[in-house]
Amino acid sequence: MFCLVNLFQVIFLALSTFIEQNSLNHMLSQIHLKHISISNIIMDYNNKISNTDSIVKKTINEFLERAEIGKRKYGKTLDRTDLIDIDYLQHLKEELMDGVLYLNKFLDIHKNN
Description:
Elements: H1 2-50, H2 54-74, H3 85-111
């Protein structure tokens, strides 16, 4: 009886190790696939950017810089979920109003020249 219990323990341990190793192998293969997928996305993105004109590249960089500034300044991104639709329209209105102020200042400067 003692040998039978030990045999079951050995079999159980072997099966557990096998299952854990296969799960680990599966997880590693999934991570590898995700890494390849992300690498492909990055390479595709870089190829698209490198095959465009300087104005598009400059605009993309400006968007990325603005996103970083906004994240540092407000500690949030546009992925936030605490605003509703009307809040975004209010933000847009305020930004457009600022734009009109800058436009009027520019026109005033150049009217006097």
